[in-house]
Amino acid sequence: MDTLLVEDDPIMRELLQGTLEGRGHKVSAFEDAESAWQACQGRHYSLFLVDWMLPGMDGLELCRRIRGSQADADNLILVITARTQAGDLEQVLAAGADDYLAKPVDLQLLNVRLTIAEQRVKLLQKQAATTAALRTSQAHFGEAQRIAHLGIWHLDIASNKLIWSDEIFRIFELEPSSFGANYESFMKLIHPADRELVNDAYLTSVARRTPYAISHRLLMADGRVKWVSERGESVYAADGKPLLSTGTVQDITENKRIEDALLLQRDIIENGTEGIVLVKAADATIHYCNRRFEVLFGYEPGELIGKHISVINASHEQTPQEVAGEINRQLEENWVWNGENLNCKKDGTTLWTYISASTFKHPELGTLWIAYQKDISERKQADAALLDHAALYRVAVETSVDGFWAVDARGRLCEVNNAYVAMSGYSRDELLNMSIPDMEALERPEETAKRIEKIMREGGEQFESMHRKKDGSLWPVKISTSYSPLLGGRFFAFINDLTEKQHKDFLLQQQSRLASMGEMIGNIAHQWRQPINALGMILYDLEDAITHGQCDREYLHSSVEKSHAVIKRMSETIDDFRNFFRIDNKVAEFDLQQLVQNSLKLMEAVLQHQQIAVTTKYARGVMVSGRTGDFSQGLLNVLANAKDAIAAKNVAHGQIDIEITEDESNGIVIISDNGGGIASDIIPKIFDPYFTTKPDGIGIGLYMTRMAIEKNMRGQIEVDNSGPGARFTIRLPKSESGELACRK
Questions:
Q1: Can you tell me the distance from the alpha carbon of 207 to that of 699, in angstroms, rounded to the nearest whole number?
Q2: Strands 150-156 and 242-251, sheet pairing
Q3: Which of 241, 426, 612, 728 is the right S-S partner for 430, CB 3.0 to 4.6 Å?
Q4: What is the pairing mode between strands 285-289 and 275-280?
Q5: What phi-psi label fits residue 213: left (phi over 0), alpha (psi between -120 and 50 degrees) or beta?
């Protein structure tokens, strides 16, 4: 096939000429339009491949001249352009070209276009030959149109009568009898979005007396869309009046589908997130790269074409040439290569990329290497930071005063720090051959397994336990665990030695008990004051009766009975206070109302002495589980705090309100007073150890109350201001769940 190539870029001209000649074309190549136009004089070319932007005359003007002088039906013009703006295709077609290719030229797409062009030229040439040969055989002529999917039409402009060959009816899927046979009927068959384009192309052709070619869509009756390529020209009278228009319609639906698929593939390649490069194996030069690859390395479009691939490799442990050579060697041996590499941008900065490369054979270019490159610089930086963090983590773990474990899902120790080695008395090697049940003193192995499952399910837990040292002795610990699926099935645990803390807690408890004992002695004094006075009155009355001779046996017996009653009351008071100080570590079910009433009884006299009224509102039958001694001591601490607040503010009519209520899970005790409330900046601190606002206070009462309620009974205590004073709210688990909730 004789082909005229016009391209001013010598590299592109050489590439295109090689591709065309590789397909068997006889190529005449020129670098400017003027020289090409001179070559067209007196010689027929079947295919024109023309660059749009040329020095001097541009490619579109050359197209117009070619179409004006060679309006043959068996030649095609393809325009090459770097322009991709809207309307470019219309300009190309209006100039007489059949199609265009965008730069940088995709060789695969070019080959497809050339195949289509060659087929169309052959079909058009065959049509011309067949038309001449089959003028005597209309049947043969129709068959040729069917084979080529190419129909012929004629339009008598004066009568508006349109004549179609049988193949056009087949393309439009119409029966001849159903067609209006005029220009308007034809326009109705065109896709609505293309009607104006087709009409303008035809009318412009008639007005300018130039051939036209256009591709457009047809809308079928069932909603399908077909693509056709239409070409036409007109015949004019001597006075220039148009008489007849004639042309061809070819079904290009399948070609359009292939072309769209190739364009989609090109768009995917050009707009993908990874850089793509094609390298000639023979000399390791870059043959093609997508825009993402150019942006990745900081190059302008087309700037990398023809350069050695080592231009993007950075010096690291090897020179860029050595890196490129090593990758090339492995590709030659294995046909694939995957790995990370340090690369260099145009401006000299470096970046890490992950490369996935493979080889394939190209019919014209020989062996090519195709490589996909993804920027992993951020990941590499993150990896480096992670290594730094790991080193810091190791230092933190080894210098921690708390013990540390890394444990797998079966409870086996995978890592321990020096602190736990010192705590346990075992060596590191011994511990790394042990599992949690070997140290755990309170839980059975099956209970430990369930706890591990819970930690892995919920992400972590804090709890207290006892561990067994190598010498068999036990020591109390607090364990804080955390787990993440990203940790490879391991979870971490920090172990805090509670021996010293328990000793301090014991001292606090003793100090609190002594403080409570002092408070109770005062209460005892107030409780006994009235019965002692009553006993004194009985003795004084008895002495007076004897003096006046009024003491008979019956009077004496009555006085003794009264004295016994008073003494019994005093004895019961002693029992009440003795029970309060009895250590009770057993978890039991108890009635909130009964325990509150018993606690109030211990403070009844002192509250009366200070003229503090107590009102109660009880929901009956609220049963909770816990240690009665812990609850009583905590409640008395809260009541004593309310009493002292009322006294400190000199409230004329002191008032303490106690309410027992419940919700779905808890029994609730609410103690309110009218002692003026607590300053907002103090509320967060009142449960802290040794915090007090009293001149002679030691600040452990409310701290021990919180410990008793929240730690020992798994309850909750809160404080806020309500109305004229403070309000303490105590929540304790109901008896149904109390046995599980309370710490045994």
A1: 106
A2: antiparallel
A3: 426
A4: antiparallel
A5: beta
pLDDT-derived band at 44 (thresholds 50, 70, 90) equals confident
Instruction: Check pLDDT > 50 for residue 740.
Output: no
Round to whole Å and give the CA distance between 683 and 435.
45
- Report the C-alpha gap between 649 and 612 in whole angstroms: 13
Q: What is the CA radius of gyration of the chain?
A: 51
Average pLDDT of the residues in 352-379:
85
3-state secondary structure 53-93: CCCCCCHHHHHHHHHHHCCCCCCEEEEEECCCCCCHHHHHH
Give Cα 457 distance to the centre of its chain. 21
Question: Which amino acid, one-letter code, is at 596?
Answer: V
CA-to-CA dists, residue 441 to 421, 436, 450, angstroms: 17, 10, 16
Question: Rounded to an integer, what distance in angstroms lies between the CA atom of residue 409 and that of residue 453?
Answer: 8
Report the phi/psi class of residue 335: left, alpha or beta, with left for phi > 0 and alpha for psi in -120 to 50: left
Q: Phi/psi at 167 (nearest 5 deg)?
A: -65, -35
- pLDDT at residue 671 greater than cutoff 90: yes
CA distance 141 to 123: 13
* pLDDT confidence band for 521 (50 / 70 / 90): low
φ and ψ at residue 332, rounded to 5 degrees: -65, -35
Strands (E), 88-169: 99-102, 150-156, 161-164
For residues 437 and 445, the answer to whether their CB atoms sit within 8 Å is yes
Write down the pLDDT at residue 211: 93
| Nearest-angstrom CA–CA distance, 235 and 469 | 111
Whether the CB-CB separation of 656 and 639 falls below 8 Å is answered with yes
Q: Is 643 exposed, middle or buried (0-12, 13-18, 19+ CB in 10 A)?
A: buried
pLDDT tens for each residue of 454-466: 888 888 888 888 8
One-letter identity of residue 375: D
Here the contacts of 527-533 (C-beta below 8 Å, separation 24 or greater) are 527/573, 527/602, 527/604, 527/605, 528/570, 528/573, 529/605, 530/605, 531/566, 531/567, 531/569, 531/570, 531/573, 532/570
pTM: 0.32
What does the block give as tokens for 735?
């008896």
Q: DSSP string covering 288-341, please?
A: EE-HHHHHHHT--TTTTTTSBGGGGBPPSSS-HHHHHHHHHHHHHHHSEEEEEE
Mean pLDDT (the chain) is 80
